[in-house]
Specification:
Layout (H helix, E strand, L loop, with lengths): L3 E2 L18 E2 L6 E2 L15 H5 L6 E2 L17 H20 L1
Antiparallel strand pairs: 1-4, 2-3
């Protein structure tokens, strides 16, 4: 039972000081969580403190790989609209590069 930080992490340092078990540490290219120390804050807090403070959607995942802050959860933008916007941006980028 341990959380993981993936490559979406931008090393903002928001999570590191909040970890009650000192499981989060600076690494390259992004922060890491020591699985031997991480308890997912069970018994200490209702929610994992790292995920509660993380400003990046999808950067912290559980043991199944599910994001604790999935896309749209912090912004309130529905996932379908995010997907449509990403598609529109990709189409715009393709038009610009082919010009």
């Amino acid at each position: 039972m341990a959380l993981e930080i993936n490559d979406l992490c931008v090393n903002c340092w928001a999570c590191e000081p909040l970890c009650p078990n000192k499981a989060i540490y600076s690494a390259s290219p992004h922060f890491e969580i020591d699985p031997d120390k991480c308890t997912e804050c069970a018994g200490d807090f209702a929610d994992a403190q790292c995920a509660a403070i993380c400003p990046i959607e999808g950067a912290i995942v559980d043991e199944l790989g599910d994001a604790l802050n999935p896309p749209g959860s912090l912004t309130g933008i529905p996932l379908q609209l995010l997907m449509e916007a990403a598609g529109a941006l990709e189409g715009t980028a393709a038009k610009v590069s082919s010009s």
